Amino acid sequence: MVTGEEMRQIDRYAIEEIGLKEELLMENAGQAFVNEITSLLDKKTAKIAVLIGAGNNGGDGFVISRSLLEKGYHVDVWLIPPLEKVKGAARYHMDVYLKSGFGLISYHTIANEGFMQQLTNYSHVIDALLGTGFKGTLRSPYKEIIEQVNKSNCSVFTVDLPSGITADGTDVETLMAIKASHTISFQCPKLSSFIYPPREFYGNLSIVDIGIPKLAVIKVSSKRHLWTEEDVTRTLPVRRPSSHKGSHGKGLIIAGSKSMTGAPILTTRACHRLGAGLVTLATPCSAHPAIASQLIEATFHLCPSKNGEIDDLNISNDVLEKRYDAIAIGPGLGRNNNGFFIEALIKGYHKPLIIDADGLYYLKYFLPGLLVRKQVTILTPHLGEFAYLTNESIKMIEKNRFQLSKEFAEKYGVYLVLKGPYTIVTTPEGHQFINTTGNSSLAKGGTGDVLTGMVLALIMQQKDVQMAISNATFLHGRAADYLTENGWNSLSVVASDLVNVLPQVLDQLQNS
Ligand SMILES: NC(=O)C1=CN([C@@H]2O[C@H](COP(=O)(O)OP(=O)(O)OC[C@H]3O[C@@H](n4cnc5c(N)ncnc54)[C@H](OP(=O)(O)O)[C@@H]3O)[C@@H](O)[C@H]2O)[C@@H](O)CC1
Ligand SMILES: Nc1ncnc2c1ncn2[C@@H]1O[C@H](COP(=O)(O)OP(=O)(O)O)[C@@H](O)[C@H]1O
Ligand SMILES: [K+]
Known about the structure:
By secondary structure, this protein is α/β, with parallel strands linked by helices. It has 2 domains: 4-222, Rossmann fold, CATH 3.40.50.10260; 241-510, 3-Layer(aba) Sandwich (UDP-N-acetylmuramoyl-L-alanine:D-glutamate ligase), CATH 3.40.1190.20. The protein contains 20 helices and 19 strands. The chain starts with a helix and ends with a helix. Residues 11, 15, 22, 25-26, 29, 53-60, 130-139, 142, 159-160, 186, 210 line the site of ligand NPW. Potassium ion is lined by residues 57, 127-131, 158-161, 163. One of its GO terms (molecular function) is ADP-dependent NAD(P)H-hydrate dehydratase activity. Pfam families: Carb_kinase, YjeF_N. InterPro entries: Carbohydrate_kinase_pred_CS, CARKD, Nnr, Ribokinase-like, YjeF_N_dom, YjeF_N_dom_sf. It comes from Anaerobacillus isosaccharinicus.
């Protein structure tokens, strides 16, 4: 997953160091694009306008136009800049296109009025206006053209990325871009396809291979990766026939309060459902009766209660360490007490620690403790919690999710799970793994509590912490996808549904 600059470096390496010709990569890009879209076009009825800009994105547009015309599609090619502005590999492909006997309409000579009139004749637009070279805000005439296309009824296929969107997803506030129904991106997904609101302009996204050697991508290692289904099936823990409950982890969940009894239930159930051997819930004694009636499999550690919340854990770090392999703290904890026990855990519990929800609220006061902590720490904030932890605005975080979460994880030496659509898991070394499962049915109270239980379950069952977290995040989103694909309306999915369908989701994965 790359920024615009990283993509340029990859292209440059492939061209200058490996010796692939730019014209060849452009030919591959155009042909790969055509292969991807022809099944979506009816040759008899589709009337296609290819809009071509001055750069290499426009060059791809010439290859696409030539290929579609050779195959017998109805295509009009609109060259937006004056002919002489087209240079380099794009020029080469423009010449090949023209010498193949095909013509073009010069927007430059017809101007916007003519373009507007003709746009109504087309069923499809192929947007080869601007690609990774776009910067700043849209200039004339691209701005007017894009406005017209967005107002039209045409389906838009975009080349590499929607014109008007930067590859890095910056300039979110001034966003004005072509609204695509499909985007076909070349070789590597661009960062902005995983950031909202730019993602909304992409429509359906496909990534196609254009023949850039893997070495070029490795050389420009971006430290950002998608965590795919293949990764999950390759790395999910397998239960040995000889195993016993102790082999699958003894976990402690510190959660719940008198006014939030659901959160600890969801976390504990999710932890059990994902294979944890033994799960104990530490909860205030005032909330215990309501919670215990809903949890048959768990054991309990009752804590003194103040204001309906845990006042003290009433157990030493030594004992915690002997009894439990990992701890998750936070769901439904409340914010009325002082949270000092979180500081004690950060400093004195020398095993993996997950901090979520209200635990993160308290953590803000104890952040320096993370700088000295040597053991695995996992934080699972949503955007609002991360904004609170970093003193940034939510807008700022949204715009710079990748950069800010990387800085934070590296600074404090933690695994940071920045939740939301396309949850990012960042390791203390700054490697980022992006989750693509899940949908807006998850935007509902309690779903984060489920994730925390799932993360706890998997970090106790597999050694590699990033894999465990990414797998939990993938399965959590997949549970939501399973529900909406199997008859649940996305409005009515609730957090406990996710826990209930985990067996089917796991089954589907293990038998795929
Ligand atoms: N390199 C390779 O090997 C391969 C690259 N490939 C393809 O190349 C694409 C990248 O091509 P690229 O770098 O030429 O840039 P591109 O996006 O076409 O735009 C440049 C033009 O946009 C203009 N422009 C900029 N900002 C603007 C604004 N705000 N408003 C208006 N105009 C603006 C800018 O004008 P200027 O600022 O220079 O005056 C210039 O004319 C990439 O996305 C992929 O599709 C594939 O073929 C595979 C092989
Ligand atoms: N629109 C969305 N698309 C995909 N996943 C989402 C979306 N909205 C929320 N989620 C996921 O749902 C979960 C919500 O967590 P959180 O906000 O902590 O909920 P809560 O604290 O109420 O349990 C996270 O895992 C997040 O990634
Ligand atoms: K484009």
